[in-house]
Amino acid sequence: MNSSPEREGVALNEDMSQLRNQYDRLHSNKWHNDDQSLERLLGAASVSKVKEYLDGLAEAYSKARTIREELRNRRWLSFLLRKPDAWHGLAVNFNLQEGGEVGNQFIKLAFFHQYPIWAQQENVSDKRMFDALLTESVAAGEKLLVSSSTELIGVASEVLAQLRNQYDQLHSNSRYNDHQSLERLLGASSGVCPITLFIILSLYTHQLINPTCWT
């Protein structure tokens, strides 16, 4: 039997209420206000992703040094809000080791909180996440991320050009019967990330040069 729209609406409201309560438990304190962040996150990521963030934060708290909840939340929000020396204060209070697993977990969680759209991509390095979080504002971090992404695409494009030349040289050899063009090989590639094309071409040209490695 299907649930009525009214019952589904009540269930959704209950889920959102639980999500809000969980968010407040992990963030609220008397020093810093963060009332709008949950709505912002839900506007940029799915409910399941936000729940994953909250569960991950609760887990990270459990692995860190135990301190009063209000101070714990204050340290976390100070880092999110880019207060002076906030990361140092968080690391000291939570007893985080430089480069340690728990510290890296907090960095990834903070990155999702500040840049949920970027965090759902797989090509942002841990260092780039941390660098973005240490900028003076969310906008400055966004600029850094865009700049690094543009640089990466530029490098990939240069490599693609080199691979294109290598591909053409290989197929100019008469011992290769398949003379299809690079464009035909890749198909409709206009919407494909240059990094993906780079991997495709790298594997393909390697196969042509070393065919015995693929048998």
What key phrases describe this protein's structure?
single chain; 215 residues; mainly alpha; 2 domains; globular; disordered C terminus
Gist?
With 215 residues, this protein is mainly alpha-helical.
Structural class, from secondary structure content? mainly alpha
End-to-end Cα distance: 55 Å
Q: How many strands? A: 0
Shape: globular
- Percent of residues in beta strands? under 5%
Protein model, in words:
This protein is 70% helix and 0% strand. The chain is built from eleven helices and no strands. The radius of gyration is 24 Å and the shape is globular. Residues 174-179, 188-192 and 206-215 have low confidence and may be disordered.
Secondary-structure topology with pairs:
Blueprint: H1 5-27, H2 37-44, H3 47-63, H4 69-80, H5 86-94, H6 101-114, H7 116-119, H8 126-133, H9 138-171, H10 182-186, H11 194-209
